[in-house]
Specification:
232 residues; alpha/beta; 5-stranded parallel sheet; two-stranded antiparallel sheet; 14% strand; globular
C-alpha cells in the first residue's frame, strides 16, 4: 500500500468505489493514485473493453462483434466484464475504482444487483466537481501517456522532461478531441448523463462530492479524508 501523504489517516484495507467527473476534472490523475494506495484495480471503461477484446474471452468476442458492427456494448456485457475482473484480475484483490461506468441510472442499478449478489456493495461514489469554464484551460493543455493513461498538463502538472512520460520516458500526446468546441459537447453530454447517476448515489447515501478546482494534492488530501470516514 502506498504511503503518499497518508500518515495522518486511518484508511481501510480495501475499497470499492465509482469515480465520476467531467473531462479535465482530474480523474486521470486521482484514479491511478487511489488504485496504487489500496493495491486495487482501476477499471476504466475503454481500457477494460480493449483488454477483454484482446484476451479473446467470450465477453470480449461478444463486445468485438457489437463494436465492429458500430453498435454500443450492452449494459449486461459491461457489468459482466466488471464481474470478471473482480473475480479473476489479481490487481482487484483489494477492491476497484470504476471509471466511466455507470453512466446511467439503469447501469447503476445493474451494477448494484451484481455487487449485492456478491455481498460487496460500493463504499463510495465520488464526483469531482468543477466549473465548466475552468475546464477549458485544463483540457486544452492536457497531455497523455497512451499506454498507461497517465495524464499531465503543460501548465498545471508538467512532466519532468518536455513531452515525455515521467515513468517510461515515452512520448506524450495531446488527444485530438481536447479542444474547446469538442469539449463543450462532451460537457453537455456529461452533465445530462451524470446528474441522475449522482442523484441515485445521493439517495443511497454514498455520494461524495469533491471540489476539483483545487490543486491535485489538495484533492488527494480530501479523498483520503473521505476514505478514512471523516466528515466533509
Amino acid at each position: 500500500m502506498s504511503t503518499n501523504g497518508t500518515s495522518e489517516f486511518k484508511l481501510p484495507k480495501a475499497i470499492r468505489m465509482v469515480i465520476m467527473g467531467p473531462p479535465g476534472s482530474g480523474k486521470g490523475t486521482q484514479a491511478p493514485s487511489i488504485a496504487e494506495q489500496f493495491c486495487a484495480c482501476h477499471l476504466a471503461t475503454g481500457d477494460m473493453l480493449r483488454a477483454a477484446v484482446a484476451s479473446g474471452s467470450e465477453l470480449g468476442k461478444q463486445a468485438k462483434k457489437i463494436m465492429d458492427a458500430g453498435g454500443l456494448v450492452s449494459d449486461e456485457i459491461m457489468v459482466g466484464m466488471i464481474k470478471d475482473n473482480i473475480e479473476n484480475n489479481a490487481t482487484c484483490k483489494n477492491g476497484f475504482i470504476l471509471d466511466g461506468f455507470p453512466r446511467t441510472v439503469v447501469q447503476a442499478e445493474k451494477l448494484d444487483e451484481m455487487l449485492d449478489a456478491r455481498k460487496q456493495g460500493l463504499d463510495h461514489a465520488v464526483e469531482l466537481v468543477i466549473d465548466d469554464a475552468l475546464l477549458v484551460a485544463r483540457i486544452t493543455g492536457r497531455l497523455v501517456h497512451p499506454a498507461s493513461g497517465r495524464s499531465y498538463h503543460r501548465i498545471f502538472n508538467p512532466p519532468a522532461r518536455l513531452m515525455l512520460d515521467d515513468v517510461t520516458g515515452e512520448p506524450l500526446v495531446q488527444r485530438s478531441d481536447d479542444n474547446e468546441a469538442t469539449l463543450g459537447k462532451r460537457l453537455k453530454t456529461y452533465h445530462e448523463q451524470t446528474a441522475p447517476v449522482a442523484a441515485y448515489y445521493r439517495r443511497k447515501g454514498i455520494l461524495r462530492q469533491v471540489d476539483a478546482a483545487q490543486k491535485p494534492s489538495a484533492v488527494w488530501h480530501t479523498l483520503l479524508a473521505i476514505f478514512a470516514g471523516q466528515k466533509q
